[in-house]
Write a structure and sequence with these properties.
flagellum; T3SS_substrate_exporter_C; T3SS_substrate_exporter; 6% strand; cilium; bacterial flagellum protein export; name from scop; 4-stranded mixed β-sheet; mainly alpha
C-alpha cells in the first residue's frame, strides 16, 4: 500500500509544470503569435516621442501654419468661387496639413515599429487572426473576467490614472500663478504659454508611462515564461515525438545491427585468410591485386561473432592463422571495408604470402 501511494505521489509530481520550456515549445508558441509583449510600451513611447516631436519641430510647424494662413487670406479668398478654385483650395489645405503633420506621422510609425521589434523581433504570422470558437464559451469568458490577470490589468489602470493625475496636478499647481495671470496677457502669449504647458505635461506623462510600461513588460515576460512551463512528462512526450520512442529506436538499431552482421558474414567466404587471437578476436582479410592497392578487412568480431567467423571460414576452406598482436591491432585500427594501414602491411603481406604458398598460388 505504501509503495502504491508513493508511486501515485510521484506521478502527480511529474504532472506539475515546473520545467522551463524547450526550444521547440518556444518556437511553436512564437509561430502561434504567443510572445512576451507589452501593449503599453509602444503606446508610451509613441506618446513621449510625439510630444517631443512637437517640441523639436514646433518652429517648423508654426512657420508652415502661418504660411498657410497667409496664402489663404492673401490669395485664395480673392478668387472667384468656382469648382476649379474650390478644388485647388482644398488641395492646398491637404498639402499643408501633410507637411505640418509629416514629422509626427513619421515619428509615430518609426517608434511603433521599433517598440514592437525590440520586444519580439521580426514576427509575421496570421494565426492570431484565425477565428477561435472557444473564445465564445461564456464559462471561459467568466473565468477571464475574474482571473488574476484581469485583476493585475485593473490595478495597472488605476496606478496609471493615479500617477498621471498626480503629475498633472503638481505641474498645474507649480504654474498656478502663471495661469492666474493669463487673463491679463495678450492672446499670442496665452497661446504660447498653453502650448508650452501642454508639451511639458505630455513629455512628463510619457516618461511616467514608459517607466510603468517597463515594469508591465517585465510582468508580461514573467507570465509568458510561466505559461510555457512544462512538466517532466511533457518533456518526455516531446522527446518521443521528435526523436522517436526509445524502445522503438532500440529495436530499429538492433535490427540494423543484425542486418549489418548478416551482410558481414556473407563476405567471410570471400576472404583469403582469417587472423585470430585465437578465441577472443577474429579478422577476415581479402586481397585482389587487380582491384585493391592493399589488403582490406571484410569482417571482424569478438567472442561469439569471432567464433561464427571462424566456423564460416572452416566451412569454406579459408585459412585460419593465429597471431594475437596482429589480430588485436587489425580489430582496433581498421574498420570493415577499409584497407590496412601502412605499419601493418609487412605483417599482413607475410601472412598472405604464406597463405598463397599453402594454396599453391605463389609463383
Amino acid at each position: 500500500m505504501t509503495r502504491l501511494a508513493l508511486q501515485l505521489d510521484l506521478q502527480l509530481f511529474a504532472g506539475e509544470k515546473t520545467e522551463a520550456a524547450t526550444p521547440k515549445k518556444r518556437q511553436e508558441a512564437r509561430e502561434k503569435g504567443q510572445v512576451a509583449k507589452s501593449m503599453e510600451l509602444p503606446a508610451a513611447f509613441i506618446l513621449f516621442f510625439s510630444f517631443l516631436g512637437f517640441y523639436l519641430f514646433g518652429g517648423y510647424m508654426k512657420q508652415e501654419v502661418v504660411q498657410m494662413f497667409k496664402q489663404v487670406y492673401n490669395d485664395y479668398l480673392l478668387w472667384d468661387l468656382t469648382e476649379g478654385s474650390t478644388s485647388l483650395f482644398f488641395n492646398m489645405l491637404m498639402l499643408y496639413t501633410l507637411k505640418i503633420l509629416a514629422p509626427i506621422f513619421l515619428i509615430t510609425v518609426v517608434i511603433a515599429i521599433l517598440g514592437n521589434y525590440l520586444q519580439i523581433g521580426f514576427l509575421l504570422t496570421g494565426k492570431p487572426l484565425a477565428p477561435q470558437f472557444s473564445k465564445l464559451n461564456p464559462i471561459e469568458g467568466a473565468k477571464k473576467i475574474f482571473s488574476f490577470r484581469t485583476l493585475v490589468d485593473f490595478l495597472k489602470s488605476v496606478l496609471k490614472m493615479s500617477v498621471i493625475g498626480v503629475v498633472v496636478f503638481t505641474t498645474l499647481w507649480d504654474q498656478k500663478n502663471s495661469i492666474m495671470d493669463l487673463a491679463r496677457l495678450p492672446l499670442e502669449s496665452t497661446f504660447a504659454f498653453t502650448s508650452s504647458l501642454t508639451l511639458m505635461l505630455g513629455i512628463k506623462i510619457g516618461l511616467v508611462l514608459i517607466v510603468i510600461s517597463i515594469f508591465d513588460y517585465i510582468y508580461q515576460r514573467f507570465e509568458y515564461e510561466k505559461s510555457l512551463r512544462m512538466s517532466k512528462q511533457d518533456i518526455k512526450d516531446e522527446y518521443k515525438k521528435t526523436e522517436g520512442d526509445p524502445l522503438i529506436k532500440g529495436k530499429i538499431r538492433e535490427k540494423q545491427r543484425r542486418m549489418a552482421l548478416q551482410r558481414m558474414m556473407q563476405e567471410v567466404p570471400k576472404a583469403d585468410v582469417v587472423i585470430t587471437n585465437p578465441t577472443h578476436f577474429a579478422v577476415a582479410l581479402k586481397y585482389d591485386a587487380q582491384q585493391m592497392q592493399a589488403p582490406a578487412v571484410i569482417a571482424k568480431g569478438t567472442d561469439y561473432i569471432a567464433l561464427k567467423i571462424k566456423d564460416l571460414a572452416k566451412q569454406n576452406g579459408i585459412v585460419i592463422m593465429e597471431n594475437k598482436p596482429l589480430a588485436r591491432a587489425l580489430y582496433a585500427q581498421v574498420e570493415i571495408g577499409d584497407s590496412i594501414p601502412a605499419d601493418l602491411f609487412q605483417a599482413v603481406a607475410e601472412i598472405l604470402a604464406y597463405v598463397y604458398k599453402i594454396k599453391g598460388k605463389a609463383n
